[in-house]
Amino acid sequence: MVFSTPEERQALKPHLVKRSSVRKNSGKSVPNGETEGGGGGDGVRMRKELGLVDGVAIIVGVIIGAGIFVSPKGVLQSSGSVLFSLIVWVFSGLLSMIGALCYAELGTMIPKSGGDYAYIGEAFGSLPAFLYLWVALFIIVPTGNAITALTFAQYILQPAWPTCTPPYAAVRLLAALITCFLTAINCKNVKWATRVQDAFTATKILALVVIIIAGLVALAIGETNNLSNINQDANWDPGYIALSFYSGLFSYAGWNYLNFVTEELKDPYKNLPRAIGISMPMVTIIYVLANLAYFIVLTKEEILSSNAVAVTFGDRLLGVMSWTMPFFVACSTFGALNGAIFASSRLFFVGARQGHLPTAISLINVDSLTPVPSLIFLCIVTLVLLIIEDVYVLINYLAFVEALFTLLSVSGLLWLRIKRPKADRPIKVNIIFPIIFFIICTFLVTLPCYVRPWEVGVGLVIIASGVPVYLVCIKWKNKPQWITKASYTINMLCAKTFMCVMEEDQSS
Length: 508
What we know:
The chain is mainly α. The chain has helices spanning 6-11, 19-26, 52-63, 67-70, 73-79, 82-109, 116-124, 126-157, 168-188, 190-220, 238-251, 268-297, 300-305, 309-317, 324-353, 372-387, 395-419, 432-446, 448-451, 453-464, 466-475, 481-497; strands spanning 363-365, 500-502.
């Protein structure tokens, strides 16, 4: 057994929770015919509360974080020229769109929350799925959340220290507070979390529309100097082409997050592909036009030397309203952090439900029907990473690792076409799309090996470090009694503290 015993998991089943205890602790009466926890006739499990608008808000809200406001220079740095940079932004959007369509097939064929974890496990088995979960748990997800929270804190505090960098401790403290605040909202109510997501997604789109309009107005009045020689210094080295796409795809990261919450999406066979079809073209058009606006107003040198391109843009063009740019960046990161917390907590919830993490993480609150332990666990790991002085250094290792597991997921799609040709596929994309995506992902995974071998090597070591954990915690059957007892005690304490039980079987 993995991380827990059969008796322990049985003890946490909702039908063994006393009805009077649930009523007393939830503070709510239970109408006739409803199951405790507010689950109605569906029992104690998370509800399908996400509609099409919520799905679009999650995808757009997670994708549009700080990247487009702060560091478009990454693409320009590797591509070398303005024209090539815009081409990379366009093709990064198209590649993300192709990937999202492939994931739409996977998400409707395997309608489970968890995204890549569920698809890799279905196609290739337990160990590769666990390794994805291992890297996502301790590196990919909490590092991204920590950096987003730090960016929010820096931009909120900057007006109080206009001539210098805000104090290190103040930035860390505010980042920790906002992480805890958003975790609390997600623990309390799914609808609260989605309303926050909807509102801040609209705000960040408004901010980018302001940038685009300002740039186009500047172009209309004759600001064309920065667009002369737009293909000068283009870098066609294959390794640096891959790196420029890494930077572009990093800003599109999050296109697969809706797949993490498939089980909570209303009518996923329709709403998952529709949300992708609306979100990805919208984000691509906005990104390309925003970068064009930057290039119209700012020189290459100004973009490459700026730590926050949108703020430099605002200082140059918006005059007394330039303060709006730091505010918009803060709003954007706030919404992105909320969306990431909401979606990624479901990844760890599903991993624990499959036995790849402690049972406690697979529990849901009987009142709010949210995965409270998973949310709190993710919050704790994020807070630990906030303590690290240079958490940004982990970004260097994330791009390769994420690209590798994305390659594995799309390989799973191709493999399942062969392995299960007659499986029910409500959405079946043309085979050319997963083949194109596979080829490009292979290119992105292999070429940086000679440009940045150190980062690739460290990424592989991080992945490999999960193998002994898998062997000890999952494959080792006859664990010492003290480990079993400690696991049981922790899981039961968590269940009682947060009034949580295991989700009822969908078949029950």
